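We were asked to recover a plausible sequence for a given structure. The inputs and outputs are reproduced exactly as logged, with field labels preserved.

PROBLEM: sequence recovery
POSITIONS: 347
GIVEN STRUCTURE:
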């Protein structure tokens, strides 16, 4: 049994795992030349293990380009995994096809980051929200229309919105339409792919509160993808931190903020605004550029920017292991504060 399999959220049991990902890999071929020959692979997701428990919200955080959105779409098989397995509600979805895959997708939905591009401008809201019901053959026309109007009301939109088009709404309202489209199928699991990143701060809080309310009302499970740790910390039960295609830390929201173990997490947290006026927080500024996912560094992928890096970091890739209280980190010197001298040998 791996450390990840053994680590559980307090009060939960293994049977409550809704989604289980093991060794998930997603590589994109890099082609060059007139013949478009493959000369390498972009390693967007490179071996991720993740459990999502029924009824919880797992936040997935990291800087742009780290593979967050790609992982979320691969878990739903919107992108085909290069390797690894994804089990949803006890079923290996990576082996499904045809009608079986279609049936599974009814229970696994996504809210896209781009609320404009994800909504067909030629379709009314009624058509957009009801499209999934029609595809899955749920109810007759009258029942589908009633379900659409009911769901629009639940996400805070008036019934007359049903006959309007996406361009007639604000960004926050379009995101509510996207939520309604996902929820009308009554899914068990939703990947929220940076649903508030393009919204004003005041609208962000409204959408976040709506997500919390809908989770309780429909007994939902979320994978919430974002790059803002403050937003993720507000909505999430647990947080997974990604860097260059790998999960480098995983813990409960409270534990991650109080006891960040990975130096990358420490740097992310130091960038959060200090909520208490007058109190200053020491900012950890990382030097160097993010390595290319086409040719990532050997050993620890963060070592080229890590103030704690030593020789072992280039030679041995640190595994994601438990450091007490179901807190996992992939670092040879996990728990060493940046600025303090690193141990002479790996912990």
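RECOVERED SEQUENCE:
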């Amino acid at each position: 049994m791996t450390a990840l399999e053994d680590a559980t959220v307090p009060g939960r049991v293994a049977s409550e795992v809704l989604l289980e990902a093991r060794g998930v890999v997603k590589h994109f071929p890099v082609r060059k030349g007139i013949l478009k020959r493959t000369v390498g692979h972009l390693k967007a997701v490179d071996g991720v293990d993740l459990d999502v428990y029924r009824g919880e919200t797992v936040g997935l955080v990291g800087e742009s380009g780290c593979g967050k959105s790609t992982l979320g779409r691969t878990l739903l098989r919107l992108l085909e995994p290069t390797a690894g397995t994804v089990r949803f509600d006890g079923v290996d979805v990576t082996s499904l096809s045809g009608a079986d895959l279609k049936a599974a997708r009814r229970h696994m939905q996504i809210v896209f980051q781009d609320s404009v591009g994800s909504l067909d401008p030629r379709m009314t809201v009624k058509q957009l929200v009801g499209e999934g019901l029609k595809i899955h053959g749920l109810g007759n026309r009258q029942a589908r229309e009633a379900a659409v109007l009911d769901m629009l009301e639940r996400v805070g939109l008036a019934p007359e919105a049903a006959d309007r088009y996406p361009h007639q709404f604000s960004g926050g309202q379009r995101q509510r339409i996207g939520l309604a489209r996902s929820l009308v199928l009554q899914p068990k699991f939703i990947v929220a792919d940076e649903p508030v990143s393009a919204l004003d701060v005041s609208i962000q809080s409204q959408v976040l509160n709506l997500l919390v309310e809908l989770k309780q009302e429909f007994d939902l499970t979320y994978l919430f993808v974002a790059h803002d740790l403050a937003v993720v910390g507000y909505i999430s039960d647990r947080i997974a931190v990604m860097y260059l295609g790998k999960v480098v830390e995983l813990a409960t929201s409270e534990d991650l903020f109080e006891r960040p173990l990975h130096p990358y997490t420490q740097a992310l947290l130091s960038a959060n605004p200090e909520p208490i006026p007058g109190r200053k927080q020491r900012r950890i500024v990382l030097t160097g550029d993010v390595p290319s996912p086409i040719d990532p560094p050997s050993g620890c992928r963060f070592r080229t920017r890590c103030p704690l890096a030593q020789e072992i970091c280039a030679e041995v890739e640190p595994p994601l292991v438990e450091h007490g209280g179901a807190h996992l980190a992939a670092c040879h010197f996990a728990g060493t504060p940046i600025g303090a001298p690193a141990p002479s040998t790996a912990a």
